[in-house]
Amino acid sequence: MDTEQVIQAESRYLVHTYNRPPVVFTRGEGSYLFDAEGKRYLDFAAGIAVNALGHAHPSWLEALQVQGGRLTHVSNLFHTEPQVELARRLVESSFADRVFFSNSGAEANEAALKFSRKWAGLNHGEGKAEVIAFEGSFHGRTMGALSLTHKPAYRRPFEPLVPGVTFVPYNDLATAERAISDRVCAVFVEPIQGERGVYMADPEFLAGLRALCDQHHALLVFDEVQCGLGRTGRLWAHEWTGVTPDIMTLAKPLAGGLPIGATLVTDPIASAIEPGDHGSTFAAGPLICTVASAVFDEVSRPEFLQQVENNGQKMRAGLLALGEERIVELRGRGLLLGMQGNGPVKPLIEAARQGGLIVISAGEEVLRICPPLTISPEEIDAGLQVLAENWNMLGRVDGD
User: Fold this and answer.
1) Which of 215, 228, 237, 386 would give a disulfide with 357, using CB separation of 3.0 to 4.6 Å?
2) What's the topology of domain 3-57+302-393?
3) Catalytic: 223?
4) pTM here?
5) Which residues lie across from 31 on neighbouring strands?
6) What are 275-307's pLDDT values in tens digits?
7) Of 121, 105, 67, 138, which is closest to residue 292 (Cα–Cα)?
8) Residue 97 annotated in active site
9) Which is catalytic among the residues 101, 138, 205, 222?
10) Residue 273 has what pLDDT?
11) What CATH number matches the domain at 71-299, 3.40.640.10, 3.40.50.300, 3.40.1190.10, 2.60.120.10?
12) Catalytic-role residue among 101, 223, 246, 296
């Protein structure tokens, strides 16, 4: 099918949950995507921070091909070595003692919510079930994760949601202190709020939450679904703050484009969970885990992380050089940046796409930059050049 045929067929057969631009991608290579007409696009979106190694990376592809010829799925009723190998990598590189695998970031947060309530009920009684989340948060769209997600437009059509969740302002420790009581079992927070517009948590804010959770015997949960696994130039985004959580959720980049989620926990939390408390048919199959281990091995190398940090600084400087007078604020770290414009960014996104660059938004006035972590300095320059050529579209509205 050509582009128009695909778009027409989609409108006939798919539930309309996304408004997509009129382009059909057919393959990718490195930091580039190619559409059905053969046009090449530099990818500054990486599938919403998913394709950490870009497209068809040799290590990723080799792991997929080799394991695909051996064993793909047996369910979690049986042992497999790739699941254990991936879990070992995650545990040995983090604060955690154990891992629960799922299929997405939303599922990872669902598990974190269930584990928190089970742990609290066993250790502190049934009344300790309240949860604190933050304004601007995004933790997923399944019912439990949606209950932790702040945006009213996402929540209202599906209410009533899971009860007991209170939202407080992000980076407002004084309000959090008033909200966190002995009835709270967990505090869910993103070290960087990606979907809101790439807002970073102050180190003092996270440290304060850590102290409050300790004081009230609550669990501190870091959602690093978007900001974790090398995107900031450190393996885990919270490493920049020196604050350690009790639970951490991961997903997007972990298998470099294949579906996986992970909920990392300490032993006291894991000890509260028994066989039958939670599970997943598809999670942590040998194919996915083999590929995820290959991604982890690439991303966790110190020289790889240093290159991410260097390229993040280059991207930041290049964006500011486009015209600081039209940038309200440039937020983020490493290769997760949010450029707050002085008006709508949609016209700039559309013009950039026509010029061969894929960028996405995080809100109407925020341009989100999250390319593959393997992007080269030369490719950064090429993408910035496309933005420069279309910079006059920033802030335009229909009819301008």
Assistant:
1) 386
2) Aspartate Aminotransferase, domain 1 (3.90.1150)
3) yes
4) 0.97
5) none
6) 999 999 999 999 999 999 999 999 999 999 999
7) 67
8) no
9) 138
10) 98
11) 3.40.640.10
12) 223
